[in-house]
């Protein structure tokens, strides 16, 4: 069972927006045992859309299309789909009701172009969109299923979860897929590959191992495809155990969740709280944590002490420390954690201070120099990093490494 | 002059990573007058990669390929490219030197698989990668140019800027492209379209108008393609002026930069500073701001007062206010801005408190309720929003709207 995703819209092809929809849809399809064969982004251009639809239908059983359903002239997906299927249009009563509701709720006048949003190709089953004015559309044509949805992420997400996936499950007989993730840190991809080669060479053809390097970590992913989910799971787990026994010291988490979520969940289980003191990461670490619902059980908040003044007023870093060692120093991050623990009354604290770049580097402390401290009630761990990247990469690496250090410390305290 | 981007790697197709590379590359190509016809993501599968290369070469002059160049078994791009071009391999001395340097610098042992990273298809010109072990590769074949780069973003970015773009400019005769962006807020896409229809209908065929809706804003983008850049720019500006005179009250910024960067630049010009007090946005607003180099000229820092306790200790919000009106209230965000201005000594402050969801909603204050205050030394503006989205969308909308409110206030003070 193969799927393809086609995103339509000039905004992706000129790079004005990043296509996050496709990754999200791909993840959902994978969880349900549907392999995504190709993701294609094309512009709002009739002939190219038709060509992409035809090419996708030759490779896949399910074609998911997003974008190009707005009311304006540059949105031509609906018209092009009708041409592709060789059908005309009908006005859909349910879709029109949804459009009217949206406009009534926001007190905006209903324009002609909006009423026309309820016009759909004759062969379509409308997937009702409660969050926007463009309905989702389901088509069955030449033994393929086509789904068209608006490109606005939360409208698309709602449609996929509530309308598309239930229909896809009912329509196709799906083979099982089982993933197992092992997040490693502190070991390079090639060294890792050499270490676990004996296991990799033993894998049967229906179990694949992928290396997903990211910011100094490597995520190993075992994926098994087949019919018997329980049997696949057992097999995958036994290979995963072999891998984990080889690389134990580099094994961070084996949940299929982001690192920060794994840290949050572990701290919540242990009943402990966290405050942060961010300088060069400028809120990124806090955002990483608070993007997860329920993070407030663990995360109390913290200081974005971007300026030196705020390191003093918010975190009680001493004038002397700043003058003698500088803002990017072991002493400063130590005092930042002490200030965070003291002022914010958390069980643990993270402090980060560094030079994210591109400016601000010196011969002593070049761009990429980052000091991290993690502290509990009884212990402070500090570490200096020299990251090789650009601003955003340095920020992300600093945040990720601080979380790895924190997890280690909390585990020691509660192991 | 058309280009296509092909990203290779299972991690995109299972949705484990978002393809940010393609957007970045597309942006760079566009800035240089190269239109991206299609972006394609395929898995590490030989026949499918070959098929994609062939299809892309039938539509485009330049094919940019990222990913699949790691040292591990699942990375097969290089081998597949050699097959596509019908050539063997050679070891490249420069590439080998770069590999050795990287390993020497990090004190890691040089493995056989790493030495093989310097093996390249015979017909390739090596693009030296100073940030990683996989060299970039440039191929000319059947009047098309193919470029292959590693998928690690900062390695790819370096190669594009330093190696690929200069060569592309030298190799192709490029037609000019001019963009003009107008960011609007507070007006729906269809209402906007109706308002500016007279201008849109007047546009010549070589000037396109796109509507890019995002989080309650609509970005209008005029794009002109042709030979004479200066003439295109004048034409585009004259259409843009007509549009801006129609929609003036909704016109936020017309720079081709993100909203927060426009706000930062304006505040820097005015010589004023900013502190923030974030509750439900949890660091997202600070991160949005501090991702930009030089933001420290304006941004001092602030409080992530996620818990109620921290609203009191960090921002002096009174017990009485919290008890009587709750954390999500006009009174609380007012006091948060006062606390931020007072404690952090900035000229302006933003405070945000709301219910991002999915939990925490009540009949009185459902999920999506967000109070924002922006304050200068003489004035506080507050506003209540009711956002319809999911957690991340609510967080983003709150941050974006707070920036629009702030820009308005700073402009009033300095207009």
In short:
The structure is a homodimer of 415-residue chains. With 415 residues, chain A is of the alpha/beta class.
- Regions with little confidence, pLDDT below 50 for 5+ residues of chain A: none
Question: What is the rounded distance between the termini of chain A?
Answer: 44 Å
Largest sheet of chain A: 6 strands, mixed
- Biggest interface and which pair forms it? A-B, 107 and 108 residues
Quaternary structure of the protein: homodimer
Shape-level CATH architecture of the largest domain in chain A: 3-Layer(aba) Sandwich
What is the CATH superfamily of the largest domain in chain A?
A: MoaB/Mog-like domain
| Average predicted local confidence, pLDDT of chain A | 93
> Structural class of the secondary elements of chain A?
alpha/beta
- Tell me the number of strands of chain A: 17
Radius of gyration of chain A: 26 Å
Query: Shape of chain A from CA axes?
Result: globular
Strand order of the largest sheet of chain A: 2-1-3-8-7-6
Total of DSSP H or I helical runs spanning 4+ residues of chain A:
15
Question: Under the CATH scheme, which class of the largest domain in chain A?
Answer: Alpha Beta
């Amino acid at each position: 069972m193969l799927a393809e995703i086609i995103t339509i819209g000039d905004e992706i092809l000129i790079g004005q927006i990043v296509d996050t929809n496709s990754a999200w849809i791909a993840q959902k399809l994978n969880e349900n045992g549907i392999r995504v064969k190709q993701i294609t982004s094309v512009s709002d251009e009739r002939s190219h859309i038709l060509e992409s639809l035809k090419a996708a239908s030759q490779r896949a059983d399910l074609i998911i299309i997003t974008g190009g359903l707005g009311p304006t002239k540059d949105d031509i997906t609906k018209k092009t789909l009708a041409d592709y299927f060789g059908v005309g249009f009908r006005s859909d009563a349910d879709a029109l009701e949804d459009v009217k509701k949206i406009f009534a709720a926001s007190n905006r006048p209903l324009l002609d172009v909006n009423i026309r949003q309820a016009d759909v190709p004759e062969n379509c089953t409308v997937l009702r969109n409660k969050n926007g004015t463009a309905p989702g559309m389901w088509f069955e044509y030449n033994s393929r299923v086509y789904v068209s949805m608006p490109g606005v992420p939360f409208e698309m997400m709602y449609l996929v979860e509530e309308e598309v996936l239930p229909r896809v499950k009912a329509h196709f007989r799906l083979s099982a897929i089982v993933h197992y993730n092992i997040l490693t840190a502190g070991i390079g991809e090639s060294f890792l590959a050499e270490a676990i080669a004996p296991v990799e060479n033993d894998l049967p053809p229906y179990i694949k191992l992928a290396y997903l390097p990211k910011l100094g970590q490597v995520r190993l992913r075992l994926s098994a495809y087949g019919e018997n989910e329980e049997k696949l799971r057992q097999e995958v787990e036994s290979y995963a155990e072999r891998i984990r026994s080889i690389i134990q010291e580099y094994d961070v988490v084996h949940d299929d969740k982001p690192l920060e979520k794994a840290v949050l969940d572990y701290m919540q289980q242990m009943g402990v709280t966290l405050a942060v003191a961010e300088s060069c990461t400028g809120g990124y670490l806090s955002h990483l944590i608070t993007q997860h619902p329920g993070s407030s059980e663990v995360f109390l908040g913290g200081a974005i002490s971007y300026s030196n003044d705020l390191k003093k007023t918010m975190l009680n870093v001493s004038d002397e420390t700043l003058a003698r060692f500088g803002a990017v120093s072991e002493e400063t991050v130590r005092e930042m954690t002490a200030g965070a623990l003291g002022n914010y009354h958390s069980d643990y604290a993270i402090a980060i201070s560094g030079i994210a770049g591109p400016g601000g580097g010196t011969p002593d402390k070049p761009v990429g120099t980052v000091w991290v401290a993690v502290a509990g009630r009884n212990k402070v761990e500090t570490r200096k990093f020299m990251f090789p990247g650009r601003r955003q990469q340095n920020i992300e690496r600093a945040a990720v490494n601080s979380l790895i250090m924190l997890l280690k410390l909390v585990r020691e305290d509660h192991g």
